[in-house]
From TrEMBL:
This is GMP synthase [glutamine-hydrolyzing]. Catalyzes the synthesis of GMP from XMP. Transmembrane segments: none annotated. Homodimer. The active site is at residues 79, 170, 172. One of its GO terms (molecular function) is GMP synthase (glutamine-hydrolyzing) activity. ATP binds at residues 223-229. Residues 196-388 form the GMPS ATP-PPase domain.
Length: 513
């Protein structure tokens, strides 16, 4: 394994990304959890020191244990990681004072060959992305300079005899177009064969779950989303019937969704699934509620109560399975963000484990979303299931602004099904991050045949996004929109007007509430 010591850079995750693309298995650990004992136990084959927002001059500046440099393994320092290396190995770092550099820069070779740079300088200069205030002013003994930029005379430094390398720029970002080559060279000279595959991951994960769980019981809140589905399938492979899933049907699901999810897991994959039909309870408590945050809070609270009620029926359950992903883990250890404003209360079962005295099983903690999808495929989940758009925990409640009624939910389910059918038929589903219909709390007048109608208006939403944090509306053709509107109005009684939402995020959010 390769160890990435995280000093808090916004882009540390991208380093892991680049390494995974090279089929190298790595783990990111925050600097303050890495000490001598940790290093001994982890026994990394190579180490990368990430960038970070700090200055080596700051009081208590983040540092790795000195012993990392005595492991005898290749080390690559990036940006702040470079400064750390110079600081720890006898070089010198100076404060910014007019030499700060942010953005695009060009690095020129100094003429000496370096194994790390093989095949890198395709022309006489390479574009890189810089983001630093302080800079190295004297390199450590044993190091030489292999690349310079106008503001970073020590842009690329290295001591090939120890396989220590340190660069001032960020090779992991998109704006360093050939950065992947540096990582490739680094892992190759560290002896990685690039043989890390999903099959290997599956085998390791199954063994680790067996070891953790032993002969105890595990419960899992199955939502039908990709993450909880893959986690459940993996844990089932590891411990079989020791796993029980609870699928909470809150009456806010899409057309046929409950049957599809429960049917697939219960009948096709032989998982033990409890179908908790709590539609009356949820819709009863939501009756007359129109404030979005109140809706979210009611659903979140009931969900936990109900899950707990069913889980209590499973005697001797000691573990709770969760589909936590790598980005969630990193976010929770990152110290870059300040206090942030709550835009929406997100629906999750955090807090449950302590309340119920359960331990967590989180077999996806080391994976990115697309890797989870690959693992799902490896585990035999059907492709259409794995490629499904995200669906929020509060479900259709937040696609029904204003008061929620059974009638509105039924209309919404039908309209949504027609819309998604249209998108699939036109081959657009996989190009879109998320698409859905929202039913609006207004009725408008229309004319159908020779009669007057007075029905609900709806809005179609479709966005492209990479992570759901920012999004753009999808540019459907007018023909597609026209055809879809006609179909919805003809096929869905209760809707007589269709609009298309062209708001990006920000300033909008993806969901309507
Ligand atoms: P917004 O509407 O905040 O949504 O732009 C961003 C992404 O998050 C999903 N979403 C949720 N997912 N629980 C979830 O599991 C929630 O409470 C929740 N609220 C929004 C939303 O569908 C989109 O993919």
């Amino acid at each position: 394994r390769l160890l990435i010591i995280d000093f808090g850079s916004q882009v540390t995750q991208l380093i892991a990304r680049r390494l995974r693309e090279l089929s190298v298995f790595c783990e990111i650990h925050p600097f303050n959890t890495v000490d001598d004992a940790f290093l001994k136990e982890f026994a990394p084959k190579a180490v990368i020191l990430s960038g970070g927002p700090s200055s080596v001059f700051a009081d208590g500046a983040p540092m790795p244990p000195q012993s990392v440099f005595d492991l005898g393994v290749p080390i690559l320092g990036i940006c702040y990681g470079q400064q750390v290396m110079m600081h720890c190995l006898g070089g010198q770092v100076e404060r910014g004072h007019g030499t700060a550099e942010f953005g695009r820069a060009f690095v020129k070779p100094t003429g000496q060959a370096l194994d790390l740079l093989q095949g890198w300088f395709a022309t006489d200069r390479e574009q890189v992305w810089m983001s630093h205030g302080d800079h190295v002013s004297k390199i450590a003994p044993g190091f030489e300079v292999y690349g310079t930029s106008p503001n970073a005379p020590f842009a690329i430094t290295g001591d090939p005899s120890r396989h220590f390398y340190a660069v001032q720029f960020h090779p992991e970002v998109h704006h360093t177009p050939n950065g992947a080559r540096l990582y490739e060279n680094f892992v190759r000279l560290a002896g990685f064969k690039g043989d890390w595959t999903m099959r290997a991951y599956r085998e390791e994960a199954v063994a680790a779950i067996r070891e953790q769980v032993g002969d105890k019981k595990v419960i899992c809140a199955l939502s039908g989303g990709v993450d909880s589905s893959v986690a459940a399938a993996l844990i089932h492979e590891a411990v079989g019937d020791q796993l029980t899933c609870v699928f909470v049907d809150h009456g806010l699901l899409r057309k046929n969704e409950a049957e599809e999810v429960v049917g697939m897991f219960r009948d096709h994959m032989n998982l033990h699934v409890i179908h908790a039909d709590e539609v009356d309870l949820f819709l009863g408590e939501l009756d007359g509620v129109s404030d979005p945050e109140t809706k979210r809070k009611i659903i979140g609270r009931l969900f936990i109560d109900i899950f707990q009620k069913y889980a209590n029926q499973i005697e001797g359950a000691e573990f709770l399975a969760q589909g936590t992903l790598y980005p969630d883990v990193i976010e929770s250890v990152s110290f870059s963000g300040g206090p942030s404003v709550t835009i929406k209360s997100h629906h999750n079962v955090g807090g449950l484990p302590e309340k119920m005295g359960l331990k967590l099983v989180e077999p996806l903690r080391e994976l990115f979303k697309d890797e989870v999808r690959a693992l799902g495929t490896e585990l035999g989940l059907p492709a259409h299931f794995i490629g499904r758009h995200p669906f929020p925990g509060p479900g259709l409640a937040i696609r029904c602004p204003g008061e929620i009624t059974r009638q509105k939910l039924d209309i919404l389910r039908e309209a949504d099904a027609v819309y998604i059918d249209q998108i699939r038929k036109h081959g657009l589903y996989d190009e879109i991050w998320q698409a859905f219909v929202a039913i609006l709390p207004v009725r408008t007048v229309g004319v159908m045949g020779d009669g007057r109608t007075y029905d609900f208006a709806c809005a179609l939403r479709a966005v492209t996004s990479v992570d759901g944090m920012t999004a753009d509306y999808y540019p459907f053709s007018h023909e597609f929109l026209g055809e879809t509107a006609t179909r919805i109005i003809n096929e869905v009684p209760g809707i007589n007007r269709v609009t298309y939402d062209i708001t990006s995020k920000p300033p909008g959010t993806i969901e309507w509430e």
